[in-house]
Fold this sequence. Notes:
Shape: globular
CATH topology of the largest domain: Rossmann fold
Number of helices: 11
Structural class: alpha/beta
CATH architecture of the largest domain: 3-Layer(aba) Sandwich
CATH superfamily of the largest domain: ANL, N-terminal domain
Radius of gyration: 21 Å
Distance between the termini: 66 Å
CATH class of the largest domain: Alpha Beta
Amino acid sequence: MFGERWDRIVAERGAQAALYLGDGSGVSFSQLDAEARAARPEGDHVLAQGDAPEILRALLAGFFHGVPVHLVEKDRQRRIPAIPAPPGTALIKQTVGGSGVRRCQFFTLDQVAADADRLHAALDLGARGVGVAAISCAHSFGLTMTVLQTLLHGVPTCFAPQPFALPLMEAMRPHARVFLPGVPALWKAWLMGEVAFGNVSLAVSAGSPLTLGLERLALEKQGLKIHNLYGTSECGTVSWDVSNTLREDESDLGVLLPGVQAHTNGDGHLVVSSSSVGMGYDEALPQEQYGKGVFTTCDEIEIREGRLWFQRCAGAGINVAGRKLSPGEIAKKIQQAAGLAGVTIHGARSRDPERCQDIVAELDLPQATIDADFKMKACSLLAPWEVPRKWSGVPR
């Protein structure tokens, strides 16, 4: 199926640029096609790790030759799945998600394509110009909005080497029309950084809740409507705010995309049914429902008059500026670095709404001993985004 779609795209657009690089140069569909045909993947998977150009090429090689592609953030190590990839696997993601547990998720090519096709049709991406890859394409949102649109629909991707104001403007400047996906923390930085959005035909936000304040700022300052999008890595896009006016309530997640069905279970969690739901995890937790076209989220959501309204996430995952983190992983690293046994990690609402949550560390130590030197040692194995902002110990 992929080969036929790709051959049609190359036949129609072979000489056109498929990928614009950070230095202003471009790579055509024909060049990518030649690279894919010459590639001979070895082993049981193709590793897709790095920035948009590396991920796009790895996906093309794997899809073209029928080898599963394992998607890994460039600052992470590959997690070897606890079970063999099920027959028909085309894509393996490793994410934390709402559960707070880092696991692998398996997808067929049809499931991957269903999400990309649904977004392409609902957001009219074929008429929006070039997709700007300013966020990580190893995240489901960035992946589906950019490089998968290139491989499955022939929509060019423009790679922004850094997600900051100046390199973003430099990447967007040569193009008459672009669509720009981002997370709220980045949208805030772009708006504060005086980014010019004159050629942005569509602005989309996902990964964490979009506040009304930020949405209003974009409208008043730039005349730009940021459309809020909701979904999960397990099932793809679920709903989006289709309106061109300011929402009245920031819990409003918009309307379901065509082909997506949803209801709430007895615990108030959203249950999603669609053709883009993956096959399942490599390690399932008790009472989880994931696979055979159905996924039960960790989110408590109300459905009223055909719209979704976010209440809260009941999972243990910590959302820091759209990046989902595992409290168990962070606790284990602190335990190892500091030689502690009693470490508990959880998320707390941040004073910065675009950051979403702060990481809180609770230690079985006297509060007075948790000083700067201790924190430096305890955080020595953590990535910068894993460092707790709040520390609490046992009072004397």
